[in-house]
Amino acid sequence: MPSEGRRGAFIVIEGLDRSGKSTQAAALVSRLEETGVSAKLMKFPDRTTPIGRMIDAYLRSESDIDDHAIHLLFSANRWELASNIERTLASGTSIVCDRYAFSGVAFSASKGLPFEWCRSPDVSLPAPDLTLFLDISPEKAKERGGYGEERYEKEEMQRRVREIFAAIATEANEKESWKWTTVDAGMDLESVSKSIWREVESLLSADHGPIQRLWT
Ligand code: TMP
Ligand code: MG
């Protein structure tokens, strides 16, 4: 239950494909609600919008799109939901978001697009209060079910993506004021949930100030 006027927390879960993000994000929303914290699950890409449907066709290799153009579509997909994120947080509901702009940078930069260029379309989106990076080795991720169905689910690409996520983590912790935490996602589901909950509990007990802007 939000105490008077307190805004919701914006929690992002990031990681490689098959790192368990979706399972953990859903579990976190349930846990928050059980604790009396109003919470909503979001995910990017949101494949239900017209832009999201273009992204979906691209990921399933039903269409080919230039690397720059698909990058901008992923970003546009976040911008079309940005005001929704702000309204939700302002109303006192917390958001657990399965992937966000960090995936945008990591995946496109791993294809060779310049890092700064990749970041620019997402500058000034609502910034998360906490980013949980579910870290798993590409070898271990590959062993999990369903791997390899979509365009980017290749071990070599995931390896590069993991390196870029690591660079984003370092920078986030050094220069930026929002919090990035790495969680070992190679553990069993319960242990990962516990690690996540520890971080979220300490976030909820703190006072989050106004919503910050990404990379400003
Ligand atoms: P999903 O598996 O979480 O639905 O994400 C689909 C793929 O899209 C995944 O391989 C990561 C990639 N991706 C990007 O390349 N850019 C982005 O901005 C986002 C959100 C995801
Ligand atoms: Mg996937």
Automatic annotation (TrEMBL):
Gene3D superfamilies on file: P-loop containing nucleotide triphosphate hydrolases (3.40.50.300)
Keyword entries, A-Z: ATP-binding, Kinase, Nucleotide biosynthesis, Nucleotide-binding, Transferase
Source species, domain of life: Eukaryota
GO process terms (BP): dTDP biosynthetic process; dTTP biosynthetic process; dUDP biosynthetic process
Matching InterPro entries: P-loop_NTPase, Thymidylate_kin-like_dom, Thymidylate_kin_CS, Thymidylate_kinase
CDD domains: TMPK
PROSITE patterns: THYMIDYLATE_KINASE (PS01331)
GO CC terms: cytosol; nucleus
EC annotation from Swiss-Prot or TrEMBL: 2.7.4.9
Molecular function GO terms recorded: ATP binding; dTMP kinase activity; nucleoside diphosphate kinase activity
Pfam families named in the record: Thymidylate_kin (PF02223)
Secretion signal, residue range per the UniProt entry: none
Pathway named in the protein's UniProt entry: Pyrimidine metabolism; dTTP biosynthesis
Name of the top EC class for this enzyme: transferase
Boundaries of every Thymidylate kinase-like domain copy: 13-196
PANTHER family for this protein: THYMIDYLATE KINASE
Similarity remark: Belongs to the thymidylate kinase family.
Protein known as: Thymidylate kinase
Organism: Schizopora paradoxa
